[in-house]
């Protein structure tokens, strides 16, 4: 195991805990949303704060960053859109009657989920509510979005004429133990996925393979066919709530309140690795270049060799739970309830891991070559035997 890391920079501008951290698609900026009711914009080039968004009347629960606009949602029941250059509030989306805890931006749509038991769809540009999704019996905690064009063949599409105009679907997970799939155009519920016996805390979508993964306080992860609604598999080995999920190359990583992360083969349901060493719940995780990075309630971030499960480094310095992590240009960003954004240099770990992967590929190549030579030798021997036997 490597030595404990020390942050290359600690950003202490927020006056309250940081609840979320978002990276822009172009990787140039980061956005933090805080308990102090403000959001801050950071440059990944110089790690300086270049924007301070003020206006919410309560704490910010979640944030999302595009290249030119930032979005925040709050316990004040509203969502705000901000100009990343001027810091000006461009729009306020009003309509929810309780805490807005999650937002998702897709195409020209802004989706939101709230403790008021609804999800909503807004026009990003017109500051207008387009649709309300009502049917959950408790708060909506998590969201996902896809288009039926991604998963359905033409002959399978049997939706109404109205829904043929817009084939977008919204997926919602709720504390009522259900996952629902909705047609965005009509607000009609397309599927209700039943099986969980606890709150659904996290969702991850694999539209090309028609699969949805849901993690719950019932200690399970479930896989669903998003076309038929059929439950495909149940992953049952966790001993605590499943808090976060990451899907990479048909490997599913799950972080839990049982202080572990587990890696599963999606196609077989087999658990192939368990990552231990956390002293509290695993609150967030991210896969990068063969390394699994985790954030925990024990105030530490960790780096594991994703294949072997070996702990490679511990990043110490935060005082409270790490709520979110991002990675860009071999820098690890961790945002914590202690109000700080910390930046860590992970070049050493990445370099060592690249060398290891190169050695493994080289060894596999030699093994493959030996196997080919062995097969060639065996084939020649076989031919000789056949000739001697007159076959």
UniProtKB/TrEMBL annotation:
Pfam family name, one: WD40
Domain of life: Eukaryota
The keyword Repeat is assigned to this record: yes
Keyword terms, alphabetized: Repeat, WD repeat
Swiss-Prot/TrEMBL WD repeat ranges: 11-43, 93-132, 169-192, 193-234, 235-274, 315-347
Protein name: WDR86 protein
Organism: Lophotis ruficrista
């Amino acid at each position: 195991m490597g030595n404990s890391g020390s942050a290359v920079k600690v950003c202490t501008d927020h006056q309250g805990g940081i609840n979320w951290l978002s990276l822009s698609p172009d990787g140039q900026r980061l956005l933090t949303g805080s308990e102090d009711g403000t959001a801050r914009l950071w440059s990944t080039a110089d790690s300086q704060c270049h924007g301070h968004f003020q206006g919410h009347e309560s704490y910010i629960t979640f944030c999302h960053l595009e290249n030119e606009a930032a979005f925040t949602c709050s316990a004040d029941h509203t969502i705000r859109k901000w100009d990343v250059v001027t810091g000006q509030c461009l729009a306020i989306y009003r309509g929810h009657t309780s805490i807005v805890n999650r937002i998702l931006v897709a195409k020209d749509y802004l989706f939101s989920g709230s403790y008021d038991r609804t999800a909503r769809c807004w026009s990003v540009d017109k500051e207008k509510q387009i649709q309300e999704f009502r049917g959950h019996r408790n708060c909506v905690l998590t969201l996902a979005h896809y288009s039926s064009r991604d998963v359905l063949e033409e002959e399978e599409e049997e939706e109404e004429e109205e829904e043929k105009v817009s084939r977008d679907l919204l997926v919602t997970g709720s504390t009522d133990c259900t996952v629902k799939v909705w047609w965005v155009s009509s607000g009609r519920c397309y599927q209700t996925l039943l099986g969980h016996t606890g709150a659904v805390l996290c969702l991850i979508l694999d539209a090309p393979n028609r699969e949805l993964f849901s993690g719950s306080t019932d200690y399970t992860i479930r896989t669903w066919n998003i076309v038929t609604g059929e439950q495909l598999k149940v992953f049952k080995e966790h001993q605590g709530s499943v808090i976060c999920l990451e899907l990479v190359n048909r490997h599913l990583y799950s972080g839990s309140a049982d202080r572990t992360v587990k890696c599963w083969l999606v196609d077989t349901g087999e658990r192939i690795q368990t990552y231990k060493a956390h002293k509290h719940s695993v609150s967030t995780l991210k896969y990068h270049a063969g390394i699994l990075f985790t954030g925990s309630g024990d105030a530490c971030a960790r780096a594991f060799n994703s294949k072997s499960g070996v702990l490679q480094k511990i990043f110490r310095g935060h005082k409270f739970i790490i709520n979110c992590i991002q990675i860009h240009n071999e820098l690890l960003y961790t945002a914590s309830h202690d109000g700080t954004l910390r930046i860590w240099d992970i070049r050493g770990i990445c370099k060592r891991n690249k060398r290891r992967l190169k050695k493994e590929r080289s060894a596999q190549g030699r093994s493959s070559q030996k196997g080919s030579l062995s097969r060639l030798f065996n084939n020649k021997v076989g031919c000789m035997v056949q000739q001697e036997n007159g076959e």
